[in-house]
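Field reference: "sequence" (input) and "structure" (output). Example, Peroxiredoxin:
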Amino acid sequence: MQNKWLIPCLLLWAAPAAAQTGDTTFTLQGTVPGTPDGAVVYLFNPNISRDTLAKDIVHGGHFTLRGPLKDPNLYFLAETGSNQHRLLFLDPAPMSFTSKDAGFDNAVVQGSVSEADYLQFEPQFAPYFGRLGQLAQRVNEEPRGSAASDSLIAIYRQKLDTLDDMTATYVKAHPASHVSTFILAVHMQVRQQYDWLETQYALLQPKIQQDYYGRILEHQIVKARIGKEGTMAIDFTQNDVNGNPVTLSSFRGKFVLVDFWASWCGPCRMENPNVVRAYQEFKGKNFTILSVSLDQAKEAWVKAITDDGLTWTQVSDLKYWNNAAAQLYNISSIPQNMLVDPKGRIIARNLRGEELEVKLKEVLQ
């Protein structure tokens, strides 16, 4: 049962804290005939081998592992000095691990509902993820833009669509299973579709939404909502070119285009004439612009403002991609912008050229 493919990097994240109810400890009674006395068995985090949950010494073919466990989760059961290991989806409950011999692979686990769900789901999904991985490797081996590459990418996307359907079907059928949040977490490493994720997450029972993986998913969903059309703009403050603090909410009552750019960004500089034209046409109609620069050097920033004729409010913390406002709105490429209405609600994103003028005419006239 070598299913390492299913261990998500998300296990390395610190899941947001949540109130815990019910049992928060586990016990695993093991029976492994043929395992020598004195052998050490232990449970550890699959991604951090030093993170040992519990360990015990085998006596007469038996061991007992117990310890704190706030949420059902995946751990490796291993034996020191051997190749024996087995992924287990532990519940905070009394459980048993019974093998007919010294091997771990064919052992029967009882007492863990999550392990039973995991064993039901794993045979279907493991081969599919394996095929996806092989297909991705083939795509990477082909020259980018070649006919072979394009064909493989099309097949890969079809496979991802099928994976969406498989995952959605499982989640719908198992709204009370901790494995549902686990598979959604794995799925999001392959395909980041936050609207789709939010739909699947809503199908889960509340207690499942707040388990280990559920809290990670909730964090992803909340973060992805930031800056979406229809949501309220989150306030921020940065200094203008004269060192004076400027707050987004200070523009409340006006339509304001929040424009993320930088002096070193060629596409940004190419777009600036369109932004200037829109500002000149609509500045007297309850509209303004707040530009946020991802520059590092103030001199280059100020020079670009002058050269491009950007006469509206300009702010920056001069922290490059670590600009606090850019990070707040998950800005990973520029230029980007968002149009905020007088009440502070985002009503459009990434308006370019004629699109910007059309939208401003729509809301201002």
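The mean pLDDT is 89.
The chain has three domains: 4-111, 115-225, 237-364.
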